[in-house]
Design goal:
- This protein has 189 residues and is mainly alpha-helical.
- Among the domains are: 99 residues, no CATH class; 28 residues, no CATH class.
- 61% of the residues lie in helices and 2% in strands.
- It is built from six helices and two strands, in the order ααααααββ.
- The protein has a two-stranded antiparallel ribbon with strand order 1-2.
- The mean pLDDT is 82.
Length: 189
């Protein structure tokens, strides 16, 4: 029986030494295959070691978090008792109790879910790179209605005369076929 426990203890010691070397190799960002080759073990052994160490860390972190959480809750309970002091004004008691409740809800995770909104705003403020409408809006952003009316009056005074749009030409070689003007086709008279 002693032989078995000595072998078991030796195997555990070797495994712990291997895991310590695995940690160093992982920190050096070596791939699993390379680590296994260096240590003379199967890749699955390295993967199992990694998983075991991750589980241990998660358990330790969870336990530490729960301990801190319980301490925090106990401190909040002590604060509740202190608020019962008669020297504290009733208005202040309400404020303190609401603050304690708010913290208690956050620590225990019982707060209602909240919505969040994220937006991306492209705020180009260089007038040289803006389009005409954006630049007009940028340049007039601080004007009141009276100043805007002045801008509109100024713009009316600057109007250029209306130019006629594009007109058809007086004649075109496309309108003539065999020296004669082309006849319109269809229902046109």
């Amino acid at each position: 029986m002693k032989r078995f426990s000595r072998r078991n203890a030796a195997a555990k010691l070797l495994a712990e030494q291997r895991r310590a070397r695995v940690v160093k190799a992982i920190e050096a960002k070596k791939p699993v295959g390379e680590i296994a080759q260096e240590l003379g073990v199967n890749r699955k052994t390295i993967t199992r070691d990694k998983n075991k160490m991750m589980n241990q860390l998660q358990t330790e972190n969870r336990t530490e978090f729960e301990r801190q959480r319980e301490e925090h809750i106990a401190e909040l309970e002590q604060l509740r008792v202190l608020v019962e002091d008669q020297s504290i004004k009733p208005e202040k008691k309400v404020e303190l109790l609401l603050g304690i409740l708010d913290r208690d809800i956050r620590v225990k995770g019982t707060a209602a879910p909240t919505r969040s909104l994220s937006a991306t705003i492209d705020a180009t403020t260089d007038p040289a790179t803006m389009g005409l409408y954006q630049r007009f809006m940028f340049e007039t952003r601080h004007l009141g209605m009276a100043e805007m009316e002045e801008v509109f009056l100024f713009a009316r005074k600057m109007r250029s005369p209306v130019k006629p749009g594009a007109q058809p030409p007086d004649s075109s070689e496309l309108w003539i076929e065999d020296g004669e003007p082309k006849q319109l086709m269809g229902d046109a008279q």
